[in-house]
Amino acid sequence: MDAELFTWHTQSDTLHDLQEGLSLAQNSGAKSLLVLTCKQNNYPEEVLNSLLSACPLKLFGGIYPMLTLQETLIKQGALIIGFKEDFDVTLFSQLNHVTNEACLEKLITSTLEKKDNFSGQDNFLMFYDALIPNIEGFVDCLFECLDHGINIAGGGAGNSDLIQRPCIFTNQGIHSNTVLLVTLPRKLNTSVAHGWRIFQGPFLASEVQGQTVQSLNYRPAYEIYCQAIESATEHKFNNTEFFDIAKNFPLGIEDINNNLIVRHPILEKNNTLQCFGNIPINSMVYLLEGDTETLIDATALAAITAFSELSQTTIPTTMIFDCISRVLFMKDEFEKELNAIATHCPSPALFGVISLGEIANSQSGAIRLLNKSIVISSW
Amino acid sequence: MNKALFIISLQHELAMAIGNKLDLRAMLKVFLKVCFNRLDLTSAHIHVYCDQSGIPCKLRLLESTSFQHFLSIPKSKRGQPWAQNTHLNNFVEQLNNSQSNSSFQCENGQYLFGFIIPNHGLLTFETHYILGDEVQKALQPVLQKLASSCYTSLVHDSLVKEVHSRQLIEEKVAFQAQHDGLTGLFNRQHINHLLANAIEEAHLNKKIGSVLFIDLNRFKPINDSMGHAVGDKILLTLSNRLHSLSSEHIDIGRFGGDEFIILLKNLKIDYQETVNQLIEQINQLLAIPFVIDANSYKLTCSIGYAFFPLQSSTVNNLIKFSDIAMYEAKRAKSQSGKKYQAAMSEKIKRRLDYVDDMKQGLEQDDFKLYYQAQYNHYGDIIGAEALLRWQHPIHGMESPAVYIPIAEESELILAIGQWVLEQACRDIKKLEQLKLPESFDKISINISAKQLIQPDFQEKILHAIEQNDIPAKRLGLELTENLLVENIEDSIKLIASLKEKSIDCAIDDFGTGYSSLTYLKRIPASVLKIDRSFVANIAQSSESAAIASMIISLGKTLKMNVLAEGVETIEEFNCLKDLGCYHYQGFYFSTPLPFDEFIRLLS
Predict the structure, then answer these.
(1) Which of A34, B16, B68, B360 is deepest in the core (most CB within 10 A)?
(2) DSSP string, A81-103
């Protein structure tokens, strides 16, 4: 049985085409619409706002750096998926105003209290503004309040220039500083992969302030990072852009079961490393390395795992959340990653987003913010 | 090698996560979160030892402590709080009993690992894998550090609580300094303070203010008869009602007892009208019955008021003036309140001067006892009533109808009553030394309400008798019917006790007040005195004759002698005699006479 009813996409960047797609979707008999658009479209914000507000069907989604449909990477255009069910949508907004853990807990609790249909075993897709301050604090708190037993997959919306703009879609329009939880009508299966392996380390994260690593082994973090890479490779930081080298050597935090949580150092500032996600203070971190082959192998393995767990009686809908850094790292070979998934995917309903940070459950059940990873989710 | 490094780093990371916050819950939450993330846990829980009040405490031998669920990540499982999770509760119970680290494999393939936080609580991890022995061992020093940090937090918490309770006490003391303990309204001191400020503001802003003095009418009998608990409830109810009038410009206070003060500020040119309206509102609030313990009470009040700065600009004067005006309102039985007038103070001053005159008169022997003889129907003198007379040095002979009520308002009536008692006893002593007619029985004196409620009243009577060495039977006491009924139980006891000592009592002015046959039957008095109002023109008034006849029959039934007062004519005498009354007092027989003349009358 098909879970989704309607799939439409365009590679055109005009709002007129999106409007046309929305009209078709509204006449398709669908009750809920997932609307995803590429950042490159540069739709006029006000017109887009009124277009979304005018949609009579339940609507959710966002603006992502790129989209995927089966084996195709869509750099410009839009994608609309229509679902038969009326999906429940929960919005957490103005998160930039929530300054401490107590306020965050209060906001999440009060929002969840209004959703008395949550059972503690729900399945969610999470669309969020990637540039919300302390998104990791939010997911930690969400997990604490939601219960374990929930399944979740998601990805950060916005643009890779890291300038915050409204990027989350609801029937009320387009939002920034917002998290959108979409409750799925069926069990969500997720599989996660990154393909990065230990290159050097461990190093003690001796001074950390959230996402900023100030020192490793009690020495300036940037200095240690450069030395470790320069001593073992031909890369030289004095004649290359930091990001061009750093995209090849992320940091990894090893957990007790030898799983690596990847953290992407996106820039260097005053001898510190700024990552896209928190590094726990006093934790042991490694320098990681990888190549296209290891990354794609990991993805293929994740796809096999994900699809083998699915029920044979339903035709699943599969959505992937793939990190922008993987596109930048693999360049022209990126579509091989999409191929690897499509090869194992049992249904043609395969689409996704290229995201700024990914969300998935860890093996233990907790919600984790990931970097440089791919989340394959099916329901 | 890397495993060892990992464990060292884990130990370091967990240890460094301890003690970053002072509050116990916040401190443990930071630690638990790091455990949760670094050990890849499914859930993590802390139970702490608590005292009998459920407050976290350090475990001590021989003291009653129990552990309670304190913190979990996540907060619930499948929508159910962890505190109600049977699997977890059973595991923690066993962990506590064994007081050593333990583990358990659940049916769903998950594992529970339990650790002791020395003397403070229990730490439980739920995992999807087996937590290695080396990791469990590495946790031991971390748990020791956690225990020390728990203790620091507990000490800190108790200090925070102490500071908080000190703050509460300080606030309470500050509140008590300004508010009345029973009603919560402002107290006298604070009202004085507010009034002082209001006077200053009125001067500055060229505005008018007013002080209203409210006193409940006949509240004391309710308090006396129903008890202070009922009285207090009435005052509290009234206070709540009055409080509804308070606003930015109206302050309400309790001055004491059943007296209240309302302070009105910022009045405009129509100030008199505003006060009139407020008085009407107060009366309306009082018109609602006070229902206390299923009984309903109706109350009224008397209100006096004064304006500032028009009538005075000092706190004491304004309170005094409104109080004086309140007394005028009470005297006039006015419901609409009285505004203070200077003449009221003059009147008060005159009364105070008059009281001073009385005091002086008492000291200078200006008071005399006159005796009005009492007769039987044969014309024999059977006794006399001692009547007080005051020869004022300026005004001449003063009427008792004027000075007795004034003396009764002050404490002076007690001194006067005592003088009457002692003088009467001295006179009886003199009579005893004469040859008295056989029919002569006793001298009676009148007793006032204030005398009767003195705890040593009986003692004083007996002392006067003893001091003058006279037979007790020669002294009689006359108590009005109203006086007896106000305090019936105590009166019955007192009269019975006096009767045992041969001192008889008469019920004076009978028929004029509230009577109850039930009470009358129980009062062991010897004489009923028919009030003069029923005697006057009894021969012509069938109504008076009927009442007198009824009193006479009552006296016979209760075995009391009946004496008619104010007999002025032969017709009245004959009529009374015909009705069966054989004892008399009045001008027909004799006017009140100075003692010497009375002696002559006797002889």
Answers:
(1) A34
(2) EEESS--EEEEE--GGG--SHHH
Say whether B38 and A282 touch across the interface (CB within 8 A): no
CB B494 within 8 A of CB B528: no
Distance CA B148, CA B150 (A): 5
| pLDDT per residue as tens digits for the range A144-178 | 888 768 899 999 999 888 889 999 999 999 999 99
Nearest CA in chain B to A206: B13
Residues A133/A164, Cβ–Cβ less than 8 Å: no
What confidence category does residue B539 fall into, taking pLDDT thresholds of 50, 70 and 90? confident
Judge contact between B45 and B85, C-beta under 8 A: no
Which residues lie below 8 Å from residue A294, measured CB to CB, with a gap of 6+?
A195, A196, A197
- Which residues from chain B sit within 8 angstroms of residue A147, using beta carbons? 74-79
Is residue A286 within 8 Å of A260, Cβ to Cβ?
Answer: yes
Which residues in chain B have their CB less than 8 angstroms from residue A143's CB? Answer: 74
Task: Tell me A345's DSSP state.
Answer: -
Which one of B13, B16, B40 has the shortest CB-CB distance to A364? B40
Domain chopping of chain A, boundaries = 4-193+294-378, 197-289
8 Å CB contact between A55 and A20 = no
User: Tell me, what's the ipTM?
Assistant: 0.88
**Chain B contact present for A120, CB below 8 A:** yes
Q: What is the domain partition of chain B in residue ranges?
A: 2-161, 188-340, 351-602
* pLDDT, tens only, B343-399: 988 888 888 888 899 999 989 889 999 999 999 999 999 999 999 999 888 888 888
Residue of A144, A146, A162, A22 whose CA lies nearest to A82: A22
Asked, colleague to colleague, whether B188-340 and B351-602 share their fold, the answer is no
* CATH class held by domain B351-602: alpha beta
Q: Looking at domain B2-161, which CATH architecture does it have?
A: 2-Layer Sandwich (3.30)
- Beta-carbon contacts of A141 under 8 Å, excluding residues fewer than 6 positions away, are A101, A104, A105, A108
* Residue B101 structure tokens: 């680290």
Q: Which residues of A touch B6 (CB under 8 A)?
A: 202, 254, 256, 284
Instruction: Give CA–CA dist B185/B360, Å, rounded.
Output: 43
pLDDT in tens, B181-233: 999 999 999 999 999 999 999 999 999 999 999 999 988 878 877 888 899 99
Q: Which chain A residues are closer than 8 Å to B5 by Cβ?
A: 202, 284
What is the C-alpha to C-alpha distance for residues A266 and A156, in angstroms, rounded to an integer? 15
The beta-carbon neighbor of B6 closest among A143, A254, A280 is A254
At the fourth CATH level, the homologous superfamily of domain B188-340 is Reverse transcriptase/Diguanylate cyclase domain (3.30.70.270)
Burial of A243 (0-12, 13-18, 19+ CB in 10 A): middle
